[in-house]
Give the backbone structure.
Amino acid sequence: LSGTAEISAGGALALALAGRRSLSEEELLRQDQAARQADQPFLPMQLHLLDNQLYCLRLDFLTLTELWRMPRDQVDLDRLTRALITLIHNHPMLRSVIRLDEDQGFVIHYDPDLPPVLEVIHTTEEEFRRGMDDLVRRFTLIGAPLYRFRIYETEESVYLHMGFNHLFNDGYSLTVLFKNLSDAYHGRPLPHDYSY
């Protein structure tokens, strides 16, 4: 490896967690809370992705999107809504925004008071299908959440549309989010997220 090699975010997390194994749960929580109170710098890959999104206005491939269709009689809409809110409150990256620091550099800012981005839309199956092309939209990059959840309830189905900006989420983190969503829906407690 050359001196310019970067460790991936997942590799950095694995190294950080390996070094933290000897810490008590209380010390881990204390460090996590302290980290959430400080703005976090971008990783080099995140800065590269942000540059691409700021200068290439038609880059929608950096929006990770999922659309789940569930039979209407097999999903409890209120329970799903509560599960999504629980998920948002449990994951600090879903309550974080990009902002400029005092040196005009981009940082990730955790805002525990950020309201959830969740819409419940009652529509017809036909109207939903006509609007499917508009599901994937660019995100406002500065000062706004980089995810969106929408639940569409039609006469036949409940659709859950989830959109994430690739700056804060990747394939591995989506797997964790989906498992946590299932756990929250079924009333199981979610583990503490040490993202910071």
Remarks:
- The CA atoms of residues 42 and 71 lie 41 Å apart.
- The longest helix spans residues 171-185.
- Residues 1-15 have pLDDT under 50 and may be disordered.
